[in-house]
Design goal:
about 300 residues; alpha+beta; Diaminopimelate Epimerase, Chain A, domain 1; 18-stranded mixed β-sheet; 7 helices; isomerase activity
Length: about 300
């Protein structure tokens, strides 16, 4: 029996403009597929993340199984592909409520649809950005900042082509290096030595710097993850679960507007719930393609 075609969408997440933000492929599964097939499809799309949705019946809120794959490996948590998946479910009418639950390798994740007209009341949102459509809010676990036990400051500096380093920490959950640089310009100017980064322990390298007051943002960042087949992740939600923790202590606040300064760029509105150790990531998305996987 021939395989039933699998409907897919490509969505640009954490942006209001097509071909900006971070692209994710969202595949709607109506039958089980083995892991080799899932990984092969992700490799075929060859973008930072491909995710797969499977409806789960019999729950009060709409619930879906959700798995995320880079071109080379399955990952435990992904922010932008979760936002992309929720965007498709909300915008296509596949769910009729404003809340979705995703069953994932990181537990049950709750996502909310927030009309843009309401979102302007948030302390961390710019009214000029809430022109139409809706925001999607992800409820993710905070990632704790810990001291780095990697005795390789010179190697990290070399991998960042000698960028001026203020501090180096590690993230507990994602096992990234978080490197604070001196300025926004230094973050933008980084030309990473990816061959060197692949040899580092952990997942990847986050670089970040405080934003100048006139920018309208709180901090800038970029994220490099060549070990997982993603040389530079255009906008990384999970990295911001750590960045929220880091900059909360530095700036003494819990609400942020963050700019990921990759070539595609992206904006995240963030709230850190310190008491419950949750990070709420809010953003928009744009559907740019749709079709079917035929094999």
């Amino acid at each position: 029996m021939a395989s039933k075609p699998v409907k897919y969408y490509v969505v640009d997440a954490f942006t209001e403009s097509a071909f900006k933000g971070n692209p994710a492929a969202v595949c709607l599964l109506e039958e089980d597929k083995d892991d080799d097939w899932l990984q092969a499809v992700a490799a075929e799309f060859n973008i930072s993340e491909t995710c797969f949705l499977t409806r789960i019946d019999g729950t009060s809120n709409p619930r879906f199984g959700l798995r995320w794959f880079t071109p080379v490996v399955e990952v435990n948590l992904c922010g932008h592909a979760t936002l992309a998946a929720a965007h498709i479910l909300f915008s296509s009418g596949l769910v009729k409520t404003n809340v979705i639950e995703f069953v994932t390798l990181s537990g049950i994740l709750t996502v909310k649809k927030i009309p843009a007209v309401d979102a302007t009341n948030g302390t961390n949102l710019q009214k000029s950005e809430a022109k139409d459509g809706f925001y999607i809010e992800l409820d993710f676990p905070a990632d704790h900042i810990i001291e780095s036990n990697f005795d390789g400051t010179a190697r990290i500096s070399g991998a960042l082509n000698g960028a001026p380093i203020i501090d180096i920490k590690s993230t507990q959950n994602s096992e990234d290096f978080l490197v604070e640089l001196a300025s926004r310009e230094d973050v933008i100017a980084v030309q990473p030595q990816l061959d060197a980064m692949v040899k580092f322990p952990g997942r990847g390298v986050i670089v970040s710097a405080i934003a100048p007051p006139e920018s309208g943002f709180d901090f800038y960042s970029r994220f490099f993850c060549p070990k997982f087949g993603v040389d530079e992740d255009p906008v990384c939600g999970t990295a911001h679960c750590a960045l929220a923790s880091y900059w909360s202590k530095k700036l003494g606040k819990c609400d942020f507007i963050a700019n990921q300064a990759s070539p595609r760029g992206g904006i995240l509105h963030i709230h850190l719930d310190e008491e419950n150790q949750r990070v709420f990531l809010r953003g928009k998305a744009v559907t740019v393609m749709e079709g079917c996987v035929l094999v």
